[in-house]
Amino acid sequence: PAVRLADYAPTAYAIPTVALDVRLAETGTLVTATIAFTRRDGTPAGAELVLDGDELDLVSAALDGAPLAPDAFTASADRFVLKAPPAGPFALTLTTRLDPATNTKLMGLYRSSGTWCTQCEAEGFRRITYFLDRPDVLSVYTVRMEADRTAAPVLLANGNPVEAGDAGDGRHFAVWHDPWPKPAYLFALVAGDLAVLKDEFVTCSGRRVELGVYVEHGNVARVGYAMDALKRSMRWDEEAFGREYDLDVFNVVAVGDFNMGAMENKGLNIFNDKYVLADPDVATDADYAGIEAVIAHEYFHNWTGNRITCRDWFQLCLKEGLTVFRDQEFSSDMRSRPVKRIADVRTLRSHQFPEDGGPLAHPVRPETYKEINNFYTATVYEKGAEVIRMLKTLIGDEAFRRGMDLYFERHDGDAATIEDFLACFAEAADEDLDAFARWYRQAGTPTVDVAEHYDAAARTYTLTLRQTVPPTPGQPDKLPHVIPVRFGLVGPNGGDMAHAGVSGAEVRGDVIVLTQPRHTVVFEGVAERPVPSLFRGFSAPVKPNVGLSLSDLTFLMRHDGDAFNRWQASSTLAMTMLVAGAHAARRGGVPRADAAYVDALGEIVGDDRLDPAFRALMLAVPGENDVARELGDDVDPDAVAASHRALRVAIGTRLKPVLSTILAAEDPAAPFAPDAAGAGRRALVNAAGDLLAATGEAAALDRLAARFSAATNMTDRLAALTSLVHRDAPQADAALAAFVERFGGVPLAVDKWLAVQATAPLGRTLDRVAALTAHPAFSFRNPNRTRALVGSFATLNPTQFARRDGAGFDFVADVVRRLDDSNPQVAARILVAFRSWRSYEPERRARAEAALRRIAAKRPLSRDVADIVERTLA
Ligand code: ARG
Ligand code: ZN
């Protein structure tokens, strides 16, 4: 049954307070919830009370302290109904028995390496007790938890600690109270034998906050970076958004078994340990950046998510899109802004564009869902963040800040909607945002076609811009979007040209505002034909089609004042060649690279005045999946791979001198620091090494093998290993063996070892992946291991997942069927790899469809997997 936004209605009852008594035990944990109810205005006296449950086992039920008569209620695994509640306030006391040890779905209360922990977003609290488990029911929680003192010396829950003591029998207890009303999805508790790093943060108004990062024993030495990122996040939110922390403690717990990245439970964030643990031996620069971003993201939710939450799950982007925007801004301030922007746009294009262009497309704010966990998507998160960024571009920084201030002031304590949010900005900017709001309602990536004309006699320069929003499932017809086009007219000297005036579309400073399907913008007094630099900084999540010549693009690549568009021009050029190359390879021909492009690339990459991180990004040509998406249909991944390889070999060959110079300039004795500057230098050196290796020259491979052995940090080690394995170098197997010999006991490093092998574009990879499922370090019970091996095979190895014989599809389908029984959320995520199946050439398309049908035929089939497979096949 689908849930619909249009059907929203508040609950009949409210829950002002909840008292939980949780008795943790190896076998049979007992949860006693005393839930206070009040009848909402408009609810008739005696109206039945229906509570959500999921796989629950009710032990006892009492109303206002007296056991309930059997005919006064009904209880099943997924529902509790109190038939005739009192008219006035009343309290239900419900005891449920849970078995966290067998909870393989990792939703509700479960165990991870012996630690009891919870995950309640989106609908996990109903797996702990019967409840009104929806985000618009806000309650004040008091939690008493009790456990064996040896098994769980650490007892944590939301809010502030109020009491702790002995409970007899080797047991102890702790009581936590969270003064801030919250929805059930923000509830959390953790109990276990954990080590902690403590620190302190003093807020802008002088509140002393005790900070703790809890990890398994032996890992405390790896939490320093996360703690530092947390303190920087707390300070930044005060400075950038005026947001202060509001409890006496803030705790972070890292667990090894976690379905997603992390969770913003009030005052007790629970993390996938991949986003907490780091030292140079096991973490790459990308891991450090990920930790910084996710620590910040979860912390920022304290205001955008917790103090102001969502009215219903359709409003998920209200907290997620906004919080991603905030964490992106934080990382931009901590690191290089243009480099962060390029990285974010690459992620958007590789994750969100294919979603928006395929069978799973949905609006940033969906209007219907069958399983909400399937809507924690790149569209809700990343496109949601782009929409906020466009809003800021349109109304300007100052109005944006006023709108945010108003939002915090007006909606603190509310469960709000996108309409509430936008109203604050409409008021702050004194602007009608109704048309802009279409970004929340219409799915699909718009295309903007641009034509230009320079009239030398009239000294006018004319741009004609046409937007099309493609049809998506359930949305055949679309209205035009409000699209901010940040632009510059680049003159022959490389600087932006002046103009004497502009007419046509509305232009605000350096932003053209498109509102109609077609606009003509005329710039007056333009001395010569400029090269247009459009969508600077990727000012809108669209596909521009400007049709610039190779020489214009090479010019922008060299001279554009906007770093993003320098990179974009290079990417566009590379994409043109990659697409042509894929067509050529399909016909049995040879892909060719444009020498002028490669030479321009060489100049930029060799320019020591430029940020190494930026130069490294320039060297990274669009990936195979990007090329397949550009091709659109009849895709043969082998032809795409051939084209991709050919371009990289051409770059590696022609740029050998400059790439070798970069490698030679590396200072192997330089101390490691996980900062942006160091990461940028490593990225450049490793990109150079990888391109040289792509040529297959023995000397380049030898040098890589030496770099692998000598590496003093995981970034360089993994980069060298990946290049060797993916190039099928003779040194690859020895390097893999050395790696697992040294890091076999470190799960997060094992993930890298699994992923390197799973993503190798080699005919034997599938057999190896299948064999690795039996490796002692692998387990289908652990989401990180499963994603590292099977997830990366399915999403990052286009030629082997989409093997012509269908064996790659079949393998992944078998894994999905197997995981469907133990962890449907992870199963559904892996299944998403099939979403572009219709764009394959006919033979692969048929094989993919057969695999999908085999998944669809499984019984029983979880709602998570059924929802994705049905939409994928529709
Ligand atoms: N709110 C979390 C975050 O954005 C994600 C939790 C999603 N969990 C889930 N089971 N769908 O960091
Ligand atoms: Zn989030």
Explain this structure.
The chain is of the alpha+beta class. 41% of the residues lie in helices and 22% in strands. The protein has 27 helices and 34 strands. The strands form 8 sheets. Strands 2, 3, 4, 6, 7, 10, 13, 15 and 16 form a 9-stranded mixed β-sheet that branches. Helix 3 runs antiparallel to helix 4, helix 16 runs antiparallel to helix 17 and helix 25 runs parallel beside helix 27. The longest helix has 24 residues. 52% of the residues are buried. The mean pLDDT is 98. The site of arginine (ARG) has 13 residues, from strand 21 and helix 2. The site of zinc ion (ZN) has 4 residues, from helix 3. It comes from Oharaeibacter diazotrophicus. Its EC number is 3.4.11.2.
Quick synopsis:
It comes from Oharaeibacter diazotrophicus. GO terms for molecular function: alanyl aminopeptidase activity; metallopeptidase activity; zinc ion binding. The protein has 874 residues and is of the alpha+beta class.
